[in-house]
Amino acid sequence: MDLISIETQEENNMIFKLIQQNDVPYIWTSGRLCDFKGCENRRDLEPKSVYGWFWSANREKMAPTSQAPNGWGFNPWSRTGHKKVKQPDNAEFDINGTNESCMSVLNNVYNDGIAWHDVACYHEKPFVCEDSEELLNYIASTNRGIRL
């Protein structure tokens, strides 16, 4: 299993409902900013805060943070955060020099409802995982006879 990639509004609604019903303050997702070796000099990722996000679990590029993903009725990124500006805001960089390179879903932490936020990757948070065909196929091919 991998951390969840929230690629549809239905999946997002399911996660938001899970967070709300269980009063979970936040969760990790597989959302990741492409700010590491191999991402430099990629004009298609600039500005990175808008175009540089992807789902690390399946390596799919995320919609630009400035707009709602295709087929969605809203933009899931929060309209506020620590700096009181739209997410992602890389706020922790101003606090301690740490980039906010991971994506978390926060539950009303900034009086903004349940919404997506960029967060420094070292924080401890609960997480939600999902099966992936790629991983299931790998396990099946390397473990003959296993029941999945």
TrEMBL record:
Keywords: Disulfide bond
Source organism, top-level taxon: Eukaryota
Domain C-type lectin residues, every copy: 1-130
InterPro entries in the record: C-type_lectin-like, C-type_lectin-like/link_sf, C-type_lectin_CS, CTDL_fold
Protein name (record): C-type lectin domain-containing protein
